Amino acid sequence: MSVRILGVEFYPITFQGALNALDWMITRDDNCTRLVVTANPIMVMAAQRDQAFMEILENAHLIVPDGVGILWAARKQGVELPERVTGVDLAYALLRKQPSPRFFLLGGKPGVAEQAAENVTHSIPGVSICGTYHGYFRPEEEEKVVEQIAAARPDVIFCAMGSPKQEKFIWKYRNRLGAKVGIGLGGVLDILSGTKKRAPEPIQQAGLEWLWRMLLEPKRIVRNLALLEFALRVQLQSWFDRTSNKGESHDAQAREQRESDTIY
User: Fold this and answer.
1) DSSP secondary structure string, the chain?
2) Minimal CA–CA distance to 169: which of 197, 192, 211, 141?
3) pLDDT tens digit string along 52-104?
4) What secondary structure does DSSP assign to 129-192, as a single string?
5) Is residue 69 part of a domain?
6) What is the Cα–Cα distance from 111 to 115, expressed in whole angstroms?
7) CA-CA distance, 100 to 103, in Å (whole number)?
8) Of the candidates 207, 233, 235, which has an alpha carbon nearest to the alpha carbon of residue 76?
9) 121-135: per-residue pLDDT in tens?
10) Rounded (5°) CA angle 229-65-46
11) 211-230, pLDDT tens digit by residue?
12) How many folded domains does the chain comprise?
């Protein structure tokens, strides 16, 4: 059973289920780059104000719940999503896959993707990195970037340019990139390159990586105000749904009583 959270649909997929879906996508050969979205509450809120982004999320080939806020919002609607499926965990699992798919690393500041490729190549034997490009290219450079990616013949693109830019890029060029899969991965290349560290394991397990990042980067405070708005909107939607259901139940009981009075 799927659940819509402020208009974005999530299915009850597990981490292993997501990997199985990615394995299937990598075997396809139909000249389409399938878009995988690792969605969190901030992205859901961005879609409220960006209709083009909402339409992309509506048509994405796979959306996974990357954020405890998504699991919480689903529970408010009476649906239990099995678990959090983070982009960084998916990235590591794919990089360890043998035989290795061909990966193109796109994103980060100049030099970050190259350092990430070097680190991954040294730490994961057999991994195949076929190309890199930074994420700070100008709109007029897009054609060159698309051509470079296609020429590298990747199976998987790690697109780490921030949302919704990364999802819009993959979706716009999905029929020209030549890859089987394009995954929006935010700051994953910063982690792979060693530019930034992932939160300690206990903080990850508690689902507080957003707080960890905010403490390390105080400028995120303004951005994370969207989390508060997300929580308020989910609470309001939950209250509205309960009120509507009570009203429908009361109306149904009233109809049954009228029908009973008519019969007897």
Assistant:
1) --EEETTEEE----HHHHHHHHHHHHH--SS--EEEEEE-HHHHHHHHH-HHHHHHHHH-SEEEE-SHHHHHHHHHTT--------HHHHHHHHHT-SSPPEEEEEESSTTHHHHHHHHHHHHSTT-EEEEEE-S---GGGHHHHHHHHHHH--SEEEEES-TTHHHHHHHHTTTTS--SEEEE-TTHHHHHHTSS-PPPHHHHHTT-HHHHHHHH-TTHHHHTHHHHHHHHHHHHHHHHHHHHHHHHHHHHHHHHHHHHHHH-
2) 141
3) 999 999 999 999 999 899 999 999 999 999 999 999 999 999 999 999 999 99
4) EEEEE-S---GGGHHHHHHHHHHH--SEEEEES-TTHHHHHHHHTTTTS--SEEEE-TTHHHHH
5) yes
6) 6
7) 8
8) 235
9) 999 999 999 999 999
10) 35
11) 666 666 666 666 677 888 99
12) 1
Which pLDDT value is given to residue 264? 46
d(Cα 150, Cα 125) in Å, to the nearest integer?
Answer: 25
pTM, two decimal places: 0.86
Report the largest interatomic distance among the alpha carbons of the chain, rounded to a whole angstrom: 83
Which residues constitute the domain of residue 191? Answer: 3-222
